[in-house]
Design a protein that fits this description.
Mean pLDDT: 91
Number of helices: 6
Helix content: 25-40%
Order of helices and strands: HHEHEEHEEEEHH
Oligomer: single chain
CATH architecture of the largest domain: 3-Layer(aba) Sandwich
Number of strands: 7
Strand content: 15-25%
CATH class of the largest domain: Alpha Beta
Bound molecules: zinc ion
Radius of gyration: 18 Å
CATH topology of the largest domain: Collagenase (Catalytic Domain)
Structural class: alpha/beta
Low-confidence stretches: 1-9, 35-40
Length: 269
């Protein structure tokens, strides 16, 4: 199991859902009811191809640490995950940055600077660094910004090819929460509050944010406050389970991303 021997396999994501985004989102749920959330509708088709500007932060010896081919390949893998909503991505430009400080990237020190110096409006700006210390203050595989935030996604070079990190961060970029989100309240296993708690999506079962074995089963088993046993979607891209278990997004996740794109990020080329 190559992925489990990868030192980056257990590194997760540093994306933080802003309180203002969560509050506005929960109010929108209350105002609109279930139907507008796309609960009963099939996946729509966006029919869009969006441009990514890639920035590669070189190390102190001037090494890239990642190839254009491997980034293009990772983008292709991401495209298969987004194909059901007819959304794809294409790298329009590679930019090499000879500031080795950024190769040991620190959100708190560097993001404003990078935003001012290396940012192409109307494209998705994707930065590749040797290490990424995200907004949660720990090293992560990647982080991005929720809709309304900057069009920036940061990826650790060693995680780029894991088949999940790019799609996961792009999921946040288009408004998806983690399947184990609790900033909205704790989602119950019986589904009774699935529209107003957790990831606010009902076709992703409650997720304790636990861990899984190589069989891609929750391990150890966990129960919620009602004594029901969690059966999370181990393969969901917005979970923290291993990339080796990756399956995809759900219908309602696609619908939510389409809604978020049309509302908050439709200025992208
Ligand atoms: Zn995440």
């Amino acid at each position: 199991m190559l992925l489990f021997s990868n030192a980056f396999a257990q590194m997760n994501c540093g994306t933080v859902a802003p309180r203002t985004f969560i509050n506005a989102d929960m109010q929108a749920v209350k105002d609109s009811g279930a139907n507008q959330r796309g609960l009963f509708f099939p996946v729509d088709c966006l029919g869009k191809k969006l441009s990514i500007t890639v920035y590669i932060f070189r190390d102190s010896l001037g090494n890239d640490g990642i190839t254009q081919a491997s980034i293009n390949s990772a983008v292709q893998t991401m495209n298969t995950d987004f194909a059901p909503m007819c959304l794809s991505f294409e790298v329009c430009r590679f930019v090499y940055v000879d500031n080795y400080n950024y190769n040991n990237y620190n959100f708190f020190k560097h993001e404003d600077e990078v935003y001012n110096l290396y940012y192409t409006p109307n494209t998705i700006n994707m930065y590749f660094s040797g290490k990424v210390l995200g907004p949660t203050g720990i090293l992560v595989c990647g982080y991005s910004h929720f809709p309304g935030g900057r069009d920036m996604i940061f990826i650790t070079k060693g995680c780029a090819g894991d088949g999940k990190t790019l799609s996961h961060e792009m999921g946040h970029f288009f408004g998806l929460y983690h399947t184990f989100e609790t900033g909205t309240g704790v989602e119950l296993i019986n589904g009774s509050n699935c529209l107003t708690a957790g990831d606010l999506i009902c076709d992703t079962p409650a997720d304790p944010g636990g861990s899984s074995g190589i069989d891609c089963q929750l391990n150890p088993y966990l129960a919620d406050i009602n004594g029901n046993w969690y059966v999370p979607q181990i393969g969901n891209i917005m979970s923290y389970y291993s990339p080796a278990c990756k399956c995809g997004f759900t219908t309602q996740q696609f619908n939510r991303m389409i809604q978020q794109f049309l509302t908050n990020r439709n200025y992208l080329w």
